[in-house]
Specification:
Layout lengths: L7 E5 L1 H16 L12 E6 L3 H13 L5 E9 L10 E5 L9 E9 L3 H12 L4 E9 L12 E5 L5 E2 L15 E4 L4
Parallel strand pairs: 2-3, 2-5, 5-6, 6-7
Antiparallel strand pairs: 1-9, 3-4, 8-9
Helix pairs in contact: 1-2
The structure holds inosinic acid and magnesium ion (MG).
Amino acid sequence: MSEPRPGIREVFSADTIAARTEDLAREIVADPALDAHGGRLIALCALQGGFMFAADMMRALSRAGCHPELAFIQLASYGEATVSSGAVTLVRDLTIDVAGRPVLFIDDILDSGRSLRYAIDHLEARGATAVRSVVLLDKAARRALTIAPDYAGFACPDAFVVGYGMDAAGRYRGLPFVGVMEEGS
Ligand code: IMP
Ligand code: MG
């Protein structure tokens, strides 16, 4: 027996995400700080939720004529799960040297802002020449720090979203769209 499928209401369709990603890639390629055609740019995917947006962003950048080196970093934030300070920990560091190179940090959603703050500080401390951020969703209502993404796909409603890389207790990352879990599901 298959388990009942919870109600997930689509908020951003696959086509809407794809079109917006192409627009963002063109803007990013035109950003002088990233020197997109200089051959030094690093695209840094934040695991785990950023994997799908990063994969599509890499293809969109390629179509826009930019071919960055791809790297991964994994951060964990305990801001919501516990009553602790909201500290971010580095679960997995990137394996290439960012010194002297521009970095585009790619994540699924900017929520409290703690992960992005940590990533920027980490990359600047290691000598990145410039750090820019692109997130698919900007959930500004939840911001705990004064920080904004350089590039954002969409303003996100103040609700827990899933799909397109984002999970609820480890599930639904593979949904091709972004949705909100319906009440009672
Ligand atoms: P921040 O450090 O609070 O900005 O955390 C951002 C991270 O929290 C994202 O990379 C997501 O992994 C996760 N996150 C925040 N809001 C949501 C949501 O609505 N659905 C799924 N994951 C979320
Ligand atoms: Mg994440």
